[in-house]
Each structure stands twice: as structure tokens, then as C-alpha cells.
Design goal:
By secondary structure, the protein is mainly beta. It is built from one helix and four strands, in the order E-E-H-E-E. 0% of the residues are buried.
């Protein structure tokens, strides 16, 4: 199992890079090789354990622009 590095994202967040090959296998990379804009849900399952779930964009509430 590969190990991934936790990285700083902005000033208040951290992130983990997901392998593009895995994202491509899920259909989350477009024809130009760019990762698609896709909603995901990140859920803490236990101390130090997180789950990332791809969710259907049609189930994701659209932001209200005023």
C-alpha cells in the first residue's frame, strides 16, 4: 500500500494527493488529462481514519448566488 504525504493547503487546511491513475479509473479525469470538478465527501471514521467518497453531482446542492 503506497504512503502519501500530508501537505499544507492554504492557511487553514491540509490535503492528501490522490493518484491520477486511480481517479482516471473512476472516470474523474477528462480527455485533456485534467481532474474533473467533482464533489466529494470527506468523513472522519475514527481517530486518524478518514473516508473520501465521490458523490453524484446531481445530489450535491448548488450554491446560492445572490
Amino acid at each position: 500500500m503506497p504512503i502519501h504525504q500530508l501537505v499544507q493547503v492554504g492557511r487553514t487546511s491540509g490535503g492528501v494527493v490522490l493518484p491520477k491513475s486511480e481517479l482516471r479509473a473512476l472516470g474523474l479525469v477528462d480527455e485533456e488529462g485534467n481532474v474533473k470538478d467533482q464533489p466529494v465527501r470527506v468523513t472522519q471514521k475514527d481517530t486518524g481514519t478518514w473516508e473520501v467518497s465521490v458523490i453524484d453531482p446531481d445530489d450535491y446542492p448548488k450554491p446560492v448566488i445572490s
